[in-house]
Design a protein that fits this description.
mainly alpha; Growth Hormone, Chain: A
Amino acid sequence: MASWRKNGYPGANGDLKPERKGLGTAASEPPAVQAFAVSEAGEARPPAPKPQLVGPFYLFTYAAVAVLGQFVSVYLRDLGFGYATIGALSAIAATAGALSQSIAGAASDAVRRRTPFVLCASALLGCLYLVYPYARSVFSFAALHAAAGLLSYTALTAAASLVLDLAPAAETSRSFASARVWGSIGYVAAMVSIVIWPELLEPPKMFYAGAAFYFAAGLAVLVARESGAFVQERRVSMRAGLFLLRQRRVVVLLSFCFLYWVALQGSFSLVALYVKYLGGGRAMMASAWIVAATIEMPFMLWLARLSDKSGRRPVLLVAAAALPLRLVAYAFAVEPWHVLPVQALHGVTFGIMVVAPMAYMNDIVPDKLRASGQGLVNACLAASSAIGPLLAGILGDVVGLRGAFLGLCVFAVAAAFVLLLLVPESRLRVHEDV
């Protein structure tokens, strides 16, 4: 810990982001004033870049997710792979993402750049899906899924960090939501295109379309110029993630997120199967996710604004209360269309959890460890994405799909108790004058 104190990190009190008491600096001025700040050499700085410019990256990335995410499993099934093998491949991708993100985030902080990580990861994902249709053995698919998990979560970690770099101090959630909402737009647009043009899902067209979206996502991030304020004097150690895991607020936040996302990701994996179990077809399956993604957009923007105004914890409490209700409501559906109104709760579950944990982590970590913190959040998401669907599948086999939703509800309730008892309010972050 002594070396961390020497480099300006917090002391034994665990306060990761100390108060800034100086007044009159460019960092303490409102955004309109910052745009006209001058450097030490007396030269005018260019206007501050806008975090919304990262939106096109999310637009194309989640269009690719819509085309590939739920339908790669169908493709693998058509090749003759069993359900267990398909589940194992999904777990390999999520595990690779979970194991890599503390390193990827620390690397981004160490080199003090975000855009190269997003661009390279997206371009490599495009190349990966161009060759995906030519794989045949389980070992080649395992390698491809491991690479896809590492690259996709790396791109998302760097992109989230870039948005937060560019965000005004008092508008962290609002800025992230204004960029991330474009992902929902891309997802809905791609799903509607699939309903209108089902041939898009025919291999290899689906893989070529996904590759094109990833290439476009990588190029789109170049529109968002990195903030010059991110440049700092001291480089960051690659052990930054381990340091953050010693901090109580980081640990309790990740504990809450893990329990919550296990329940949420597990339920996601069951929705299409549940619609089919109730007698619905592919159109109803697609409609369920179109409803969810459409509802999440206005809620994401509204609740992000509320998070910046009233704090992160009240918004997280809404999400914690809504998820058990959503899971119980699934269990009582008797017709395929009954799933549609339940999907409306997506706005106050996923719509909150895609923004608030990122903002909370950004509140409590030093600016120089921003990507390391976001890497831990995405590592937690990846781990829960591996465990949640696996647990849901086991519960589905043992107690049926209705029982699986109720079983996942136990994790949702546990997450609510962790939030109520252990997770304090984070204070609004303050940009460091670096």
